[in-house]
């Protein structure tokens, strides 16, 4: 099978590329020489292109597209989130159909349903929020809806919703928390003892591999380790593997959430590009069951 992967130099994309390249011919988006080298080392053939400007010939002879790329930064403008997560996904869907691709696997997220509430005991029928202050959630939801709508008799689309991906190669959770601890900015919110779902990177890659041939077109699937974790215990143990001991300091949930709203408002009004000390997304995720 010939497969095209976006985001192959990232955490999920790279792990997926390494695994699939053992049994398939893998082509991978490469926006720079650096990313081209990374995807080559992972076993894929780099294709010079970028989200929003993929050409039909870039996908020539590919049967499946696995879309891992997204704007996942904690802070950014609405334009940055929208162009990468929504416009980039829609353009890739359109060109994939044009190129005759048969299956499109979209790496989505549980965050498409999140606006600050708990997500305990929900399934894939849980409704999208009418509105959310979190740009990542809003734009990933719009992208997921586009993927679902693109499904038809000749073009199968599958959305996978992993939650809190962890494991070797993580470029988000561990590095971010390690930096916060090093600069004295890390604090638990409300004690940190909230139940959360997680998914180990190898389990997610296994789900992606299954989606190459299985799954119902136009459907969304949560991908987790099938067990709940205490967030504080999980993060503490994970950071200990990196020689980092998390501090015990904690702030009340209402204080953290209120502070995040005020800080974001000021950052937007003053057009400050530097990431704020806390965002609503971080404050919400760290203070509720997910």
UniProtKB/TrEMBL annotation:
Q: Which positions, given as ranges, span the membrane?
A: none
Q: Which domain of life is it from?
A: Bacteria
Q: Which GO terms describe its cellular component?
A: cytoplasm
Q: Which residues form the 3-beta hydroxysteroid dehydrogenase/isomerase domain?
A: 5-249
- Entry's InterPro entries? 3Beta_OHSteriod_DH/Estase (IPR002225), NAD(P)-bd_dom_sf (IPR036291), NAD(P)-dependent_oxidoreduct (IPR051783)
- Pfam families this protein is in? 3Beta_HSD
Q: Report the record's Gene Ontology biological process terms.
A: steroid biosynthetic process
Q: Name one GO molecular function term.
A: aldehyde dehydrogenase (NAD+) activity
The record's PANTHER family line, in alphabetical order, gives:
NAD(P)-BINDING DOMAIN-CONTAINING PROTEIN-RELATED, PROTEIN YEEZ
Q: What is this protein called?
A: 3-beta hydroxysteroid dehydrogenase
Organism of origin is Uabimicrobium amorphum
């Amino acid at each position: 099978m010939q497969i095209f992967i976006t985001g192959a130099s990232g955490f999920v994309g790279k792990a997926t590329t390494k695994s699939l390249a053992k049994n398939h011919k893998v082509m991978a988006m490469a926006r720079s020489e650096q990313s081209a080298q990374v995807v080559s080392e992972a076993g894929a053939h780099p294709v010079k292109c970028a989200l929003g400007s993929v050409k039909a010939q870039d996908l020539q002879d590919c049967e499946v597209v696995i879309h891992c790329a997204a704007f996942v930064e904690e802070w950014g403008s609405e334009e940055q989130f929208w162009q990468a997560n929504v416009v980039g996904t829609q353009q890739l869907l359109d060109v994939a159909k044009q190129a005759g691709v048969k299956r499109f696997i979209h790496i989505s997220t549980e965050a498409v349903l999140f606006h600050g509430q708990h997500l305990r005991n929900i399934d894939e029928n849980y409704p999208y929020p009418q509105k959310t202050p979190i740009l990542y959630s809003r734009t990933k939801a719009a992208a997921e809806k586009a993927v679902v709508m693109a499904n038809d008799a000749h073009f199968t689309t599958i959305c996978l919703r992993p939650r809190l991906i962890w494991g070797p190669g993580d470029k988000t959770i561990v590095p971010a928390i390690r930096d916060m601890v090093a600069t004295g900015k890390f604090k638990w919110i409300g004690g940190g003892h909230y139940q959360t779902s997680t998914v180990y990177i190898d389990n997610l890659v296994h789900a992606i591999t299954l989606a190459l041939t299985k799954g119902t077109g136009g459907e969304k699937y949560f991908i987790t380790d099938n067990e709940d974790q205490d967030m504080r215990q999980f993060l503490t143990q994970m950071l200990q593997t990196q020689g980092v001991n998390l501090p015990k300091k904690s702030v009340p949930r209402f204080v953290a959430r209120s502070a995040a709203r005020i800080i974001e408002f000021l950052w937007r009004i003053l057009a400050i590009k530097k990431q704020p000390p806390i965002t609503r997304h971080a404050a919400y995720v760290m203070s509720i069951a997910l």
